[in-house]
Amino acid sequence: MLKTTTESLLTTRFPNEPAWFTDLRKQALQKLRVTKDPRFAKVNYINWGLGELQAPVQPKRPINKPSSDAYIYCSLAEALQQHEKLLKTYFMKRAITDWADRLISFSTAYMNCGNFIYLPANTKLTAPIFVNQIEHGPHAAEVSHNFIIMDRGAQATICVMDEARQPTETKHRVSEIVLEENSQLNLVNIDAFTSKAAYINRQAWIGENAKLTWTIGSFSSGNVLAEMNAELVGRRSVATINNGAITVGKQTQGMNTQVTNFAPHSIGNIRQRGVIMDQSRLVFNGIGKIIHGAHGTIAQQENRVLMLSDQASGDANPILLIDENDVVAGHAASVGRLDKKQLYYLMSRGLSKPIAKKLVVRGFIGTFAKEITHSQIRKKFQDVLERKLAHDN
Amino acid sequence: METLEIKDLHVSVKDDDTQKSKEILTGVNLVMHTGEVHAIMGPNGTGKSTLSETIMGNPHYQVTQGDILLNNESLLEKPVDARARAGLFLAMQYPAEIKGITNMDFLRAAINARRPEKQPIAIKDFLAQLDEALSILNMTEDMAARYLNEGFSGGERKRNEILQLLMIKPTFAILDELDSGLDIDALQVVSKGVNHVMGPNFGTLMITHYKRILKYIHPDQVHVMMGGRIVKSGDAKLADRLEDEGYAGLRDELGIHVNLVDSEV
């Protein structure tokens, strides 16, 4: 496909797309030729069809979202028309700054949809924002770019989830999350993608004194390659990433979850828990990185994997990259099985084997659900978890 | 009235390392009915725990001969969860720790496993029962929210086993060394819990080394096990005699040739 010229290849456009934006697409397309696939240790995704153009799809006309007076919530296409200045400030300027690999280059060049959420300075929302990704045609392969921007001192809870829809071959979803100073965001992603393969790249930039509490339910049914990354750029910034994943059938989920402490006195926490069933595969690469000069920082991580089948395989790889002395860093990792003794004990009280197993899984992953403070979101998280478990039978 | 019957039960255990089978039970016979309290006493290593685990259906133990019957129906082909739903309960010596599952979730799942699928117990009823059971056992509410046996002290575990007994309300309960590792106060509390479920529709089989617990839970029949079978049965007075004479006395009287693991009097 790279034999033809750049110009003729790049047919994806938003309606009335500004020239600077189209230029970004072209730059990304150039990068697409020279960049490599992102590295996911112990995950082989060569044959998943990621970073390949399906039938080219034009973005749908944007539908007006239930925006509020307090904040902006609209489609990316709409934001390009109505909030161009904001986009110019943030689009690949903070959270993502480089087309570092082939998949991010691809996703930028061929982006066909996305959401845009902006909370102005000092906006404090009590009710959560629910984002139901994403409008595009029924059979269109999503290549989306999404924004959540919390301006100074803003506070909000945002839940992003997918309603079940027609499965597509692939899905590419890139998200930029920006927390300006003193802002706070509770972000819950409930992923239940039905596409055969999905590439997820979520990058958060966290400014001074800002706090991100991020919970991800990785309950998709297809193959998933996910990168979750939080950069602690401002002093005393805090990020907690909780990722709960279940794999079933023959699916593979490979997840790189990274927190980087750039600033002094920043605190990073990664907790990942996964359950692997049937013949599936799950890989957690937890990366805690402390940049030189980020003294007085904390970087903790815990990756735990529970295998419920002899034919399943999994990895929990903690990686600590520390370039500073005055820090507290730690990691824990385990790959365990539900042992016979536990199963016998549960069954000795009358629970059938499948129910006993479910109880264990629910307990193992449900820890994260219990920490979601908003009850409606907690319920949604638990419902999708239950659905994924029911799928197991 | 319901009946649990053990008939000429022979049980072997396979050693995980050597893969050799060893016969532990060599022909146990026992009949018990609801409304009765039976105690099995015996020296260490004589097969008491093997008997209780085999009745419950622990797959580690292989029945080579004989039968286990609940109301004249054999349980041998039934897995452990089916036996539990049929009415058996085993308070274990070493209950498993399971992180992530709260006591409360577990109890509800256990109760619902005995109910029709579409009719789970109402939360209100469940909580009322739980409150009552907790207060009988002098347990605080936070016990219900803790993970199943995780980080529990020996005493807490035993209490927790009896809490499950109170909530699940089985027909026959086997209490495997309920008294081991308990101080006197805890023993009284736990016994109180067991006495609470006593009645015409409930039968108990207590496995113990000592007479001590029989002061609080009075047995109708006492059986003595040696060498993998029951060698003598009697009333509560048999326990008094054992306490005085030790197991060696009875062994010599009966002319049984077994080595007692710990006492060669």
From TrEMBL, chain A:
Top-level lineage group: Bacteria
User: Where would I find the SUF system FeS cluster assembly SufBD core domain in this sequence?
Assistant: 140-364
**Alphabetical GO biological process terms:** iron-sulfur cluster assembly
- Pinpoint the SUF system FeS cluster assembly SufBD N-terminal domain residues: 68-129
The record's InterPro entries line, in alphabetical order, gives: Fe-S_cluster_assembly_SufBD, SUF_FeS_clus_asmbl_SufBD_core, SUF_FeS_clus_asmbl_SufBD_sf, SUF_FeS_clus_asmbl_SufD, SufBD_N
Family assignment?
A: Belongs to the iron-sulfur cluster assembly SufBD family.
Name of the protein in question: FeS assembly protein SufD
- Species of provenance: Pediococcus cellicola
Automatic annotation (TrEMBL), chain B:
Please give the Pfam families that the UniProt record associates with this protein. Answer: ABC_tran
Keywords, alphabetical: ATP-binding, Nucleotide-binding
- Which GO molecular function terms does the record list? ATP binding; ATP hydrolysis activity
Q: Where is the ABC transporter domain?
A: 4-252
Q: Which domain of life is it from?
A: Bacteria
KW Hydrolase (keyword) present: no
Transmembrane regions: none
In its keyword annotation, does this UniProt entry include Oxidoreductase?
no
| SUPFAM superfamilies found in the cross-reference section | P-loop containing nucleoside triphosphate hydrolases
Q: Which family does it belong to?
A: Belongs to the ABC transporter superfamily. Ycf16 family.
The protein here is known as Sufc-like iron-sulfur cluster assembly atpase protein
